[in-house]
Amino acid sequence: MDPLRPVSDAPSPAEGASVAPDLAELLKLSGRGDQGAFSQLYDAVSPRVFGLAVRVVRDRAQAEEVTQEALLEIWRTASRFDPDRGSPLAWMLTIVHRKSVDRVRSAEASTRRDTSYHQQNQPVDHDATAEAAHASLEARRVRTALGSLTPVQREALELAYFGGYTHTEVAGLLDLPVGTAKTRIRDGLIRLRDTMGVGGA
Amino acid sequence: MSIDIHALSGAYAVDALDDIERAQFERHLADCPACRAEVASLQEASALMAETVLEAPPAGLRDRVLADIATVRPLPPLVTGLVSGEAVARRPARRWFPGLVAAAAVVTAIGVGVGVTQPWQDESSQVQPSAVDRIKAADDVQSFSKDFPDGSSATLYRSTSMNKAAIVTKNMADAPSGKVYELWLQHDDRMVAAGLMPDGPDNVVELSGDPATADGFGITVETDGGSTSGEPEGEVVAVVGFDQA
């Protein structure tokens, strides 16, 4: 682990900048109760956290609540992050995603399905996605990598990750035989992983 | 166990399993290093997708989050002494102890896979404060405490006349992700499941079963949902005999 080094007081939350501060170090300090470190962590990751929550939960007020809950959980469990088992960002976003999915599933019928906000037939709104993230080089790389998946892999993966659907529901949405959506999701993730060169693959 | 279960790694990485599948897969993960590694790498991949949806949060959120965290103490790290074999090894075997350790050791050694699905059939009931207070107020109440190296503690209160026992934890670290603390009562050489402990540092959990006739109690770390074999399978956190009141 890098030696302790100061991180600038107000890191710019600029979208698209790759995450400059040492997130693992900030997590470690947060686990010791360092609120200043956590505020830097917030500045570094909140656009990802909130963006992901909004994308899955859709309702902005609820996405704020989910973001707040997830960040509190990250604060509370920061000492449990194990750098040997993955990157800090993936660890945090896994918590955020889980909470977002829990929220849409528990809210199911009431909120998500009958909201007219963002309601569309197109399961994934690529234009809005692109617009929000056009400045990000990393986003461009990811979108290129996603573009290399087969259409079914990509749709299955996006319905699962951004739509919060189970693989069984994804199979239904895409008219796939039950049991094959999970394979498409896995294949898609493996391709994304290998194209982006993450996960020690 | 289904051979197919490995194929759930991708769906698990993107939270696309229903609750039952998730519990099954997490039980599988505990025994399958290959799947653990794959899930970790796929979670790295899925997290990249968040790069495409960046959105600055509303201005007020930062202050609310920072106000939130100021009121919550971060959990301590998982201290190896608490859940590793170290705590067990340091304690000499006592007469109520070998049954449990042997069970845990044997299962660990052969890595028995368990395919029975009955998750959460016995979700531990968190008792009202009054329930533990009644036990504590009983004329014949006994208490048995276990202090852990990280400063946490677990105290069991038992009333033989009421045939009830409750455990009170202080500052207890959560079980590792995908794991849960399971409570046991020892009857002769058998350990009988007595409930699961929810996450959270300070819990009050009433034990099920027959505390009055038990010889001791134990806490183990089991895969989420608890041991499915009816015997302790995971690591032993504490074993305390009732003859040492």
TrEMBL record, chain A:
<dbReference type="InterPro" id="IPR036388">
    <property type="entry name" value="WH-like_DNA-bd_sf"/>
</dbReference>
<dbReference type="InterPro" id="IPR007627">
    <property type="entry name" value="RNA_pol_sigma70_r2"/>
</dbReference>
<keyword id="KW-0731">Sigma factor</keyword>
<dbReference type="InterPro" id="IPR039425">
    <property type="entry name" value="RNA_pol_sigma-70-like"/>
</dbReference>
<comment type="similarity">
    <text>Belongs to the sigma-70 factor family. ECF subfamily.</text>
</comment>
<dbReference type="GO" id="GO:0016987">
    <property type="term" value="F:sigma factor activity"/>
</dbReference>
<feature type="domain" description="RNA polymerase sigma factor 70 region 4 type 2">
    <location>
        <begin position="140"/>
        <end position="192"/>
    </location>
</feature>
<dbReference type="InterPro" id="IPR013249">
    <property type="entry name" value="RNA_pol_sigma70_r4_t2"/>
</dbReference>
<dbReference type="InterPro" id="IPR013325">
    <property type="entry name" value="RNA_pol_sigma_r2"/>
</dbReference>
<dbReference type="InterPro" id="IPR013324">
    <property type="entry name" value="RNA_pol_sigma_r3/r4-like"/>
</dbReference>
<dbReference type="Pfam" id="PF08281">
    <property type="entry name" value="Sigma70_r4_2"/>
</dbReference>
<dbReference type="Pfam" id="PF04542">
    <property type="entry name" value="Sigma70_r2"/>
</dbReference>
<dbReference type="InterPro" id="IPR014284">
    <property type="entry name" value="RNA_pol_sigma-70_dom"/>
</dbReference>
<keyword id="KW-0805">Transcription regulation</keyword>
<keyword id="KW-0804">Transcription</keyword>
<dbReference type="GO" id="GO:0006352">
    <property type="term" value="P:DNA-templated transcription initiation"/>
</dbReference>
<dbReference type="GO" id="GO:0003677">
    <property type="term" value="F:DNA binding"/>
</dbReference>
<protein>
    <submittedName>
        <fullName>RNA polymerase sigma-70 factor, ECF subfamily</fullName>
    </submittedName>
</protein>
<feature type="domain" description="RNA polymerase sigma-70 region 2">
    <location>
        <begin position="41"/>
        <end position="107"/>
    </location>
</feature>
UniProtKB/TrEMBL annotation, chain B:
<keyword id="KW-0804">Transcription</keyword>
<keyword id="KW-1133">Transmembrane helix</keyword>
<keyword id="KW-0812">Transmembrane</keyword>
<dbReference type="InterPro" id="IPR018764">
    <property type="entry name" value="RskA_C"/>
</dbReference>
<protein>
    <recommendedName>
        <fullName>Regulator of SigK</fullName>
    </recommendedName>
</protein>
<feature type="domain" description="Anti-sigma K factor RskA C-terminal">
    <location>
        <begin position="101"/>
        <end position="236"/>
    </location>
</feature>
<dbReference type="Pfam" id="PF13490">
    <property type="entry name" value="zf-HC2"/>
</dbReference>
<dbReference type="InterPro" id="IPR051474">
    <property type="entry name" value="Anti-sigma-K/W_factor"/>
</dbReference>
<dbReference type="InterPro" id="IPR041916">
    <property type="entry name" value="Anti_sigma_zinc_sf"/>
</dbReference>
<feature type="domain" description="Putative zinc-finger">
    <location>
        <begin position="4"/>
        <end position="36"/>
    </location>
</feature>
<keyword id="KW-1003">Cell membrane</keyword>
<dbReference type="Pfam" id="PF10099">
    <property type="entry name" value="RskA_C"/>
</dbReference>
<keyword id="KW-0805">Transcription regulation</keyword>
<dbReference type="GO" id="GO:0016989">
    <property type="term" value="F:sigma factor antagonist activity"/>
</dbReference>
<keyword id="KW-0472">Membrane</keyword>
<dbReference type="GO" id="GO:0005886">
    <property type="term" value="C:plasma membrane"/>
</dbReference>
<dbReference type="GO" id="GO:0006417">
    <property type="term" value="P:regulation of translation"/>
</dbReference>
<dbReference type="InterPro" id="IPR027383">
    <property type="entry name" value="Znf_put"/>
</dbReference>
